[in-house]
Amino acid sequence: MKRRDFIEKTAAGSAFVGLGLSLSSFKSDTIKKITILHTNDVHSHIDPFPADDPRNANMGGVSRRASLIETIRKENPNVLLLDAGDIFQGTPYFNYYGGELEFKLMSMMQYDASAIGNHDFDNGIDGLLAQMPHATFEFLSANYDFKNTVMDGMVKPYKIFIKDGIKIGVFGLGIEFEGLVDKKLYKETVYNDPVEISQDMVRILKQEQKCDLVICLSHLGYKYSKEDANKISDLKLAALTEDIDLIIGGHTHTFLDKPTILKNKAGKEVLVNQVGCYGINLGQIDFYFDNNKQNIAKGKSIVV
């Protein structure tokens, strides 16, 4: 993608948010910039959509995403690349390779961490485990308890990254299995309440580990209709918790041009973002920190 086209396609979806501050309020010699890139629900879409596709003609594709990520990394030295789950299922690549190709390509793009989606169990928990050696990135899930399964010890609840002195805590959440995943696929995996688990995670990450930025990788879904009012969603999670700065979501294939801004339980701002599905878009959220570790953020969705 040409740089001019890249700017035109991303500028409209870009907006500054956070803490009532503006970038001009930060002294330029003290600003630290952290760039979060993210995907969700790629569903084994390795190739771009064909030119005759009625909805997504010539969009997506791993090679284009890799080039875009490489370009952004050259301009931004402090990048985290994250995925919110449902890496598997959707094209013959998964049917034939069982997820091997997806994990290898994500490793080549240097993903840092991923949540686990419901479709990542489509070949069973044993099938997911079999592909783990092909992934060089971390799988994060704080509310799936794999203790009595073959996945015990293979998944972490959270991971801490340090970029330019900024401490970033990332934890993962998975959706409830009932009605989505056959018991024989996830076996003895236990689903725990994501709201309670999130409060445990932010206590560890914010209070004990003193993280400057807390990110939740969620496969809960952006929001649900009144008929599913009892289901926990990213919007509900944001309102019911404290100290999460950013929720990167998946599952509902929700296309957002820029992050949604909500108030958390303590009245502070939290960002929620999701970039649709099939690798059509890449999310980019830039956090700017001053020397007091206050931050503002600018978010956008980039067409691949």
Helix/strand layout:
Layout: H1 3-11, E1 15-17, E2 32-39, H2 62-75, E3 79-83, H3 92-97, H4 100-108, E4 113-114, H5 124-131, E5 138-139, E6 144-145, E7 158-163, E8 166-173, H6 183-186, E9 190-191, H7 194-208, E10 213-218, H8 234-240, E11 246-248, E12 260-263, E13 269-273, E14 281-289, E15 295-303
Parallel strand pairs: 2-3, 3-4, 4-5, 8-10, 10-11, 11-13
Antiparallel strand pairs: 1-15, 2-14, 6-9, 7-8, 12-13, 14-15
Provide key terms for this protein.
single chain, 304 residues, alpha/beta, 7-stranded mixed β-sheet, 8 helices, 24% helix, 24% strand, disordered N terminus
Q: What does this molecule look like?
A:
The protein contains eight helices and 15 strands. It is α/β, with parallel strands linked by helices and 304 residues long. The strands form three sheets. The chain has a seven-stranded mixed sheet. The radius of gyration is 18 Å and the shape is globular.
